[in-house]
Amino acid sequence: MGKRLKQQRRGKGSLAYRKPPNTFKADVRFKKVQAQGKIYGEVLEFIDDPGHTGPLMRVKYDDNSEEMLIAPEGIRIGDRIEEGADASVSLGNILPLSKVPEGMPVYNIESLPGDGGKFVRACGAYATIIGRVGDKVNVLLPSKKTIELNINCRAEIGAVAGGGVTSQPIMKAGKSHYIMHAINAKWPVNRGVKSNPVDHPFGGKQHHKGASSMVSRNAPPGAKVGHIAARRVGRRKRG
Questions:
Q1: 58 and 160 share one domain
Q2: Are the CB atoms for 87 and 80 separated by under 8 Å?
Q3: 47 DSSP β-pair partners
Q4: Of 4, 147, 200, 238, whose CB neighbour count within 10 A is largest?
């Protein structure tokens, strides 16, 4: 019978594969402000959070409230930022996509108005406003994919700081282990054919599947790997 696959054990949500929340320093979300007007803030310090690839900045607003935001490239301690519908288009400011001119780089974009920011949060990443149609804004993501968002979704102006981090070679697996452990990523990712028979349906000494990898949609969880409910596999024949 074997045992459950590692991805199945992780998906259960048990403590063995869950990252303790106290290891992360901040939950980065936009401050909720009124639809009109703006609020001013000052950058107090930069923070290196294991849960984010880019550095964070602690911002103190004029009403004495504080907020953790993702720092843009080029901002400094003591700089002033603005947040709100009437904020100016300047580095680090937070404003709706309807106020951002086309071609302007943005990051930490909301998927729905008020969710606090979901897209483009990795170090060195930025998206570009490419057009508007009615109450929708077309945004070009770093993956070259274009998405359509509501004009009331907010974003930060600029690009995420720390873009050169991924350019440095890792050199050894131990360093990669600590990087992946900090963000609770599944690593290493081993091939099923390299596993033992008790660990994976494709496992064994042959180093190949040995049978078809097409699996029924109604297969039990221990066997649901490979081409799940595939319409077809293999090469297409020429007409």
A1: yes
A2: no
A3: 56
A4: 200
Number of domains within the chain? 2
For residues 103 and 190, state if they share a domain. Answer: no
Could you write out the three-class secondary structure of the chain?
Answer: CCCCCHHHHHHCCCHHHCCCHHHCCCCCCCCCCCCCCEEEEEEEEEECCCCCCCCEEEEEECCCCEEEEECECCCCCCCEEEEECCCCCCCCCEEEHHHCCCCCEEECECCCCCCCCCECCCCCCCEEEEEEECCEEEEECCCCCEEEEECCCEEEECCECCCCHHHCCCCCHHHHHHHHHHCCCCCCCCCHHHCCCCCCCCCCCCCCCCCCCEECCCCCHHHCCCEECCCCCCCCCCC
Answer whether residue 145 is part of any domain: yes
Phi, psi of 128 (to 5 degrees): -130, 135
Assess whether 49 and 117 both reside in one domain: yes
Q: What is the CATH number of the domain that holds 208?
A: 4.10.950.10
Please give the backbone phi and psi of residue 105, each rounded to the nearest 5 degrees, phi first.
-75, 135
- Supply the pTM of this predicted model: 0.78
Of 11-15, 146-150, 151-155, least confident by mean pLDDT is 11-15
Res. 31: pLDDT tops 70: yes
In a domain, 174, yes or no: no
Nearest Cα to Cα of residue 28 among 119, 145, 133: 119
Strand partners, 57: 46, 69
Per-residue pLDDT, 35: 60
Q: Does residue 185 register a pLDDT over 70?
A: yes
Q: Which two tokens stand for residue 127?
A: 């998206």
